[in-house]
C-alpha cells in the first residue's frame, strides 16, 4: 500500500514511517521541517519538503491513506501564541481533509492527544470521559477530532484518532529531539549528559505516593505498531478514537531515579512550585486500543524505554 505521512521528519512520524517501510509499504513524507529534521526521514521514503496546508499539490488517487502527524505541539507556546496552533493544527488539518476528499483518498490515521481530556475526573481515562482541554494545543486537537467525525459521517472517511499519552523511547536512528524540549525523559537525559545543571520537579506535594506527578509513558515503537493496526481497523464512515498508553503510570521521581540507574550519572533535582493546569495523575485506559485494534504493547518497562532514549541521545550528542 502507498501512504502519505505528514510530519514524517519529526519524532513520532519518522518512527511510524520506518515501521510502514519495514512492513513493505510505500511511503511519502510531507514535512515543512519547522520542527523536524531532514535526516529524520527514513531512507526508503520519498520526501516532499512542503506544508500540509498545500497537501492538494501532492496528494493524488495513487495513495491508499494518510497518517497525519504534522502539527505544532508545545503546550506552553500554545498558551502565548494560540493563533499559531489554530492555523497550523486546525486550518492545516482542514486543508488536508479537503485534499483527501478531492483526490479520493479515504483512509486517515490522526495523532490526537491526552491533552484533549484536560483535568480528568477519573483515572484511568477512558475515551468517553469529558473532553475539557486546559490549553489551546489540546483544544485544537479536539477541534480536529470533531472535524474528522463530521468528515466520516458526511463523506464516508475511514478514520482513526489515536490519543497518545506520553510518548518516549527511540527506535534505532529515530528518536526525540524537540527544540525547545519540554518532555520529561529527554530533559532528564540532558541533565545526565551534563547539558543541564538539574531537573526541575514541579511540585512534590501532589496526592501521589511520592508527591510528584504521575504520567503514562508509552514506547514509541509500541505506538508505531498501533498505527499500522489502525490502518487495518479503519472502516468507511466510522471515526474510531482510541487512547494509547500503558495503563500504569510512573512518577517524576521514578523517572529521575530510573535515569540515574540506566545512565550511571548523577541527576541533581530542584523542587519548583507546581505549574498551573498540571493534573496529579494522567493514565490511559487502553482497553479500546486492545479490543478494537488488537494492540498489545510489549515495551512497557520504564528502564527499557529510558535505555532506548539514552542510546539515541548519546548518538545525537556524538554528531553535534
Ligand atoms: N510526542 C508526544 O509525546 C505526543 C503526545 C501526544 C500527541 N502528539 C502528537 O503527535 C504528533 C507528532 O509529534 P512529535 O512529538 O513527533 O512532534 P514533532 O514536532 O517532532 O513532529 C511534527 C512534525 O510535523 C512537521 N510539521 C509541523 N507543521 C507542519 C506543516 N504545516 N506542514 C508540514 N509539516 C509540518 C514538523 O516539521 C515536524 O517534523 C503531533 O501531531 C503531536 O501533537 C505527540
Kindly report how far apart the N and C termini lie: 37 Å
Mean pLDDT: 96
> Are any ligands bound, and if so which?
nicotinamide-adenine-dinucleotide
Would you report the number of β strands? 14
Strand content: 15-25%
What is the spatial order of strands in the main beta sheet? Answer: 3-2-1-4-5-6-11
Output the radius of gyration. Answer: 19 Å
The dominant shape is globular
Helices, by number, come to 9
* Global structural class: alpha/beta
Can you describe this structure?
- With 320 residues, the protein is of the alpha/beta class.
- Helices cover 38% and strands 18% of the residues.
- It contains 9 helices and 14 strands.
- The protein has helices at residues 11-22, 75-80, 82-103, 136-155, 184-192, 220-233, 252-263, 287-293, 302-319, and strands spanning 2-6, 26-31, 46-49, 65-68, 107-113, 158-164, 166-168, 199-202, 214-215, 217-219, 239-244, 250-251, 269-272, 281-282.
- The strands form 4 sheets. A 7-stranded parallel sheet has the order 3-2-1-4-5-6-11, with helices on both faces. It has a 3-stranded mixed sheet with strand order 12-9-14. The chain has a two-stranded parallel sheet with strand order 7-10.
- α3 (82-103) packs parallel to α4 and α5 (184-192) packs across α9.
- The longest helix is centred in the N-terminal third of the chain and has 22 residues, at 82-103.
- It is globular and about 55 Å long.
- The structure holds nicotinamide-adenine-dinucleotide.
- Residues 4-239 form the NAD-dependent epimerase/dehydratase domain.
- GO terms for molecular function: UDP-glucose 4-epimerase activity.
Amino acid at each position: 500500500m502507498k501512504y502519505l505521512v505528514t510530519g514524517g521528519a519529526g519524532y513520532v512520524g519518522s518512527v511510524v514511517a520506518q515501521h510502514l517501510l519495514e512492513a513493505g509499504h510505500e511511503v511519502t513524507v510531507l514535512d515543512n521541517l519547522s520542527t523536524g529534521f531532514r535526516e529524520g526521514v527514513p531512507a526508503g521514503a520519498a520526501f516532499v519538503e512542503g506544508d500540509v496546508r498545500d497537501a492538494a499539490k501532492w496528494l493524488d488517487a495513487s495513495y491508499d491513506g494518510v497518517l497525519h502527524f504534522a502539527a505544532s505541539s508545545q503546550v506552553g507556546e500554545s498558551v502565548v501564541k494560540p493563533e499559531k496552533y489554530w492555523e497550523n493544527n486546525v486550518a492545516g488539518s482542514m486543508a488536508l481533509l479537503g485534499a483527501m476528499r478531492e483526490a479520493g483518498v479515504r483512509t486517515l490515521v490522526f495523532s490526537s492527544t491526552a491533552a484533549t481530556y484536560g483535568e480528568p475526573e477519573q483515572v484511568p481515562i477512558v475515551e468517553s470521559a469529558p473532553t475539557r482541554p486546559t490549553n489551546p494545543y489540546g483544544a485544537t486537537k479536539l477541534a480536529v477530532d470533531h472535524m474528522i467525525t463530521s468528515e466520516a459521517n458526511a463523506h464516508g472517511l475511514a478514520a482513526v484518532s489515536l490519543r497518545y499519552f506520553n510518548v518516549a523511547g527511540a527506535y534505532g536512528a529515530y528518536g526525540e529531539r524537540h527544540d525547545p524540549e519540554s518532555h520529561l525523559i529527554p530533559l532528564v537525559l540532558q541533565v545526565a549528559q551534563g547539558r543541564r545543571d538539574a531537573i526541575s520537579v514541579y511540585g512534590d506535594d501532589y496526592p501521589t505516593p511520592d508527591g510528584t506527578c504521575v504520567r503514562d509513558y508509552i514506547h514509541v515503537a509500541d505506538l508505531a505498531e498501533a498505527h499500522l493496526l489502525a490502518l487495518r481497523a479503519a472502516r468507511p464512515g466510522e471515526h474510531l478514537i482510541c487512547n494509547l498508553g500503558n495503563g500504569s503510570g510512573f512518577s517524576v521521581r521514578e523517572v529521575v531515579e530510573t535515569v540515574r540507574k540506566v545512565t550511571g550519572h548523577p541527576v541533581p533535582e530542584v523542587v519548583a512550585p507546581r505549574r498551573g493546569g498540571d493534573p496529579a495523575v494522567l493514565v490511559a485506559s487502553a482497553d479500546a486500543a486492545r479490543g478494537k485494534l488488537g494492540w498489545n504493547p510489549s515495551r512497557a518497562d520504564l528502564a527499557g524505554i529510558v535505555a532506548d532514549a539514552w542510546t539515541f541521545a548519546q548518538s545525537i550528542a556524538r554528531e553535534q
